[in-house]
Design brief:
Strand content: 5-15%
Radius of gyration: 19 Å
Number of helices: 4
Strand order of the largest sheet: 1-2
Distance between the termini: 69 Å
Oligomer: single chain
Shape: globular
Largest sheet: 2 strands, antiparallel
Length: about 130
Amino acid sequence: LTYAELGVDPPVDKDYDDNKNWCRYCGARYSSNFTKGPWGPRTLCTIHYIDWNQKKRLNLTQFKEMPKRPINPEANSELTYLRNMKSKKSDNFAMEEYEPGLQSKKRRRLNPVSYTHLTLPTIYSV
């Protein structure tokens, strides 16, 4: 699938100043999550956060200031993410469900943590 087939503008046409939810490394606007990077919260997509923080394969130390444009747009992960979501949803895929920033808000709203199934041990006094 291409950006046109998904009904999404390619990232090269994106004005990155109007949205805080995009990966400063690759420019992805769609991801399962945006998480902390060297510039603060929600500055890396999941793929590049793992490469930077967990696997230590992505060295971003030379970029002291928060990037205003993607550092490496060729590494953009959003099309792979959208293709995967479309293949999982098949006929029920709606692009508006994957607007930047909505994924984490929906996840919090739809999957609240519930502890009602836990039982606490009874403490007996003698």
